[in-house]
């Protein structure tokens, strides 16, 4: 992959400059703009059309949550949002995942982790361990009634239901293929259909939706 276009948004000058230096040292990454608040990030995302937006959770004028929501709702916007935070159980991170962010990265991550996360998100992957999602959901949500799970699963075929449950438990496509005795290409097709039928952007949103509706629980 080459020529990834990145937008960085953080109200701390040192953080923005540090991330810019790290990412611009990578041959396949270009920082096209940086913003010091959420409102600037929204405007620059619309203008520059980056591949990935690194978005701080807590910013003045417009916080990262609302900025993420607005960026992801921009017509024709293909950017993926990677939230930056200091705490892995930040309630705003959980809300950001619900609106479509592709994951989050702690600000003290290493340069290698930062570059790897940007590349992964640009390729459509999610940056968030399922165990962290379950901890956040256990903290910020209540156990839903059983009928929620039944209503959600009714939209899927029996095989898609099986794939959805395993996906929600954090299984990779390879692991799902092994458990269900399917080819990885077939699993990819089922995952794409599950996301499409449920109106989801990526696997992170699928995990959140599954936990919120009782399809799986933190105990699983």
TrEMBL record:
One term of GO molecular function: DNA binding
Residue ranges constituting the Response regulatory domain according to the UniProt record: 5-122
Modified positions (4-aspartylphosphate) in chain numbering: 56
Keyword Nucleotidyltransferase in record: no
SUPFAM superfamilies noted in UniProt: CheY-like
InterPro entries per UniProt: CheY-like_superfamily, NreC/VraR/RcsB-like_REC, Sig_transdc_resp-reg_receiver, Tscrpt_reg_LuxR_C, WalR-like
HTH luxR-type domain location: 149-214
UniProt KW keywords: DNA-binding, Phosphoprotein, Transcription, Transcription regulation
GO annotation, biological process: phosphorelay signal transduction system; regulation of DNA-templated transcription
Protein name according to UniProt: Response regulator transcription factor
Taxonomic classification: Bacteria, Bacillati, Actinomycetota, Actinomycetes, Micrococcales
